[in-house]
Amino acid sequence: MSRFVGSRRLVVRDQVKDLSFPVLLMYPTRVPAETVAMGPYSIEVAANAPVDECALSLVVLSHGGRGTPLAYRTIASHLAQSGYVVAMPEHPGDNRNDPSMSDTVDNLRDRPRHLRLAVDAVCSDAEIGPHLRGDDIAVIGHSMGGYTALALAGGQPWTGPGQRVEVTRDPRVKALVLMAPATSWFVPNDALKDVSAPILLLVAEHDRMTPRWQGQLVLDLVPDRAQVTFKVVENAGHFSFLSPFPPEMRTPGFLPASDPAGFDREAFHRELPQEVREFLDRTSSPTG
């Protein structure tokens, strides 16, 4: 029987900040998918379908600043169809509908904490939790999501000399996928000394927002450089890691849909999800 992509939504409560935020889940199912509209996007999913009966690995995906989880739907769908549960929280105060906390120290503190709350919610969910294989998780992060992934995996961010950002390492993080990560808060030489998880590090050749030196920080500061699989995506820009947008959204003034001249985002996103999945397969080995 063929495997399809199921989807569900959770609402996670942050008692500290007295707010709630949504988490979109994609996971394998045996129920045939249908075309479902999610905002401006059309996605092939079986809404609220039962989870495929197998042991699954959990991936949590952190979107970029002022972004949306749906911008990574090609990666999430591919992973779900391949046997992963993908949890995609919308970061409160740092998303496309509400950027009120973007560029604040509170956002640096809260982003990794909200990922941890999302993981806790998925692991304790009555429908999804029983299908998960242990507590090991992988984190995928783009741009500010890359910052978030590193902070959750043991990175210690700083906003300046002596100005330490309070974050808590989550020992469940066993693999990281960093796409054009924002790393300028990890400048001190020991800022990434506790990041030991294997890393797939992808940077864009023509990235003006998180230029190559930010990816180089990861290579230079993690304790075991051999744990990092590093790749420069030729001719790509910062937003090339986002799923291709519908034609009506590809307007000249809409930067997230823009790429350097000659870059084929559609072709890239036929390769990127598979590259991410192959890396995660080597680190978490899903079955089913």
Distance between the termini: 12 Å
List the uncertain runs.
none
Note the beta-strand portion: 25-35%
> CATH first level: which class?
Alpha Beta
Mean pLDDT across every amino acid position: 96
- Give the overall form: globular
CATH topology: Rossmann fold
The H/E string reads: EEEEEHEHEHEEEEHEH
Count of alpha and pi helical runs: 5
- Order of adjacent strands in the largest pleated sheet: 3-4-1-2-6-5-7-10-11-12
The CATH homologous superfamily is termed Alpha/Beta hydrolase fold, catalytic domain
Query: How many E strands?
Result: 12
Summarize the structure.
The protein has one domain (4-284): Alpha/Beta hydrolase fold, catalytic domain (Rossmann fold), CATH 3.40.50.1820. The protein contains five helices and twelve strands. The protein has helices spanning 73-81, 105-124, 144-152, 212-221, 265-284, and strands at residues 4-14, 19-29, 34-38, 41-47, 56-62, 84-89, 132-142, 158-160, 163-164, 173-179, 199-204, 228-233.
Helix and strand arrangement:
Blueprint: E1 4-14, E2 19-29, E3 34-38, E4 41-47, E5 56-62, H1 73-81, E6 84-89, H2 105-124, E7 132-142, H3 144-152, E8 158-160, E9 163-164, E10 173-179, E11 199-204, H4 212-221, E12 228-233, H5 265-284
Parallel strand pairs: 1-4, 5-6, 5-7, 7-10, 10-11, 11-12
Antiparallel strand pairs: 1-2, 2-6, 3-4, 8-9
Helix pairs in contact: 1-5, 2-3
